[in-house]
């Protein structure tokens, strides 16, 4: 059976570690993962930070948001996805803000998010690496109003933003009636 009509909102996801199996060719640390058949799932106002040093190999990757084929009607808005992982075991494993093996048709909405990756990481994977938000937008046809800025979190485990006034990560959002404010009681909308 499939899972449907699920709301995932107002979460702070951080401090995720992966042992980095030397034989693994799959995802290592993942913030939000859809690995089965899902329908009508909404992801609003979540903040995901993957950082620190992790084990890994050339075929292992980390992702803030990960979706495999089989899902549909997915709505991803007003999220902050930051991947600053640094692998201690390999210089060729990769960290992504967004990773999917599906076409863009599984998403009803994929917009108004903030994506940021550190040096040597990649903004997105959508059948190939997409370096930078512009490449992600061009190749995947979504995220017209998303941004690519480093979020200024209080700490690596406290994902409250240090300031809401003038903070571009907050200004990336759009009003969503179902979840008008985030976990801090602040709108992520610039309108």
Provide a brief overview of the structure.
With 191 residues, this protein is mostly beta strands. The chain has one helix spanning 133-140, and strands spanning 3-9, 12-13, 27-34, 38-44, 47-50, 53-54, 61-67, 72-77, 80-83, 86-87, 94-100, 107-111, 114-117, 122-126, 129-130. The protein starts with a strand and ends in a 51-residue tail after the last helix.
Q: Describe it for me?
A:
This protein has 191 residues and is mainly β. It is built from one helix and 15 strands. A five-stranded mixed beta sheet has the order 3-7-11-14-15. It is globular and about 45 Å long. It starts with a strand and ends in a 51-residue tail after the last helix. The model has no long low-confidence stretch (mean pLDDT 84).
List the defining traits of the structure above.
single chain; 191 residues; mainly beta; globular
Radius of gyration: 16 Å
| Unreliable stretches | none
Q: What strand line-up does the widest sheet have? A: 3-7-11-14-15
> What is the percent of helical residues?
under 10%
The structure class reads mainly beta
Taking all residues together, what is the mean pLDDT?
A: 84
| Biggest pleated-sheet summary | 5 strands, mixed
Kindly state the number of beta strands. 15
String of helices and strands: EEEEEEEEEEEEEEEH
Strand percent estimate: 35-45%
Number of helices: 1
Form type:
globular
Ends apart, CA distance between termini? 39 Å
Chain-wise SSE layout:
Layout: E1 3-9, E2 12-13, E3 27-34, E4 38-44, E5 47-50, E6 53-54, E7 61-67, E8 72-77, E9 80-83, E10 86-87, E11 94-100, E12 107-111, E13 114-117, E14 122-126, E15 129-130, H1 133-140
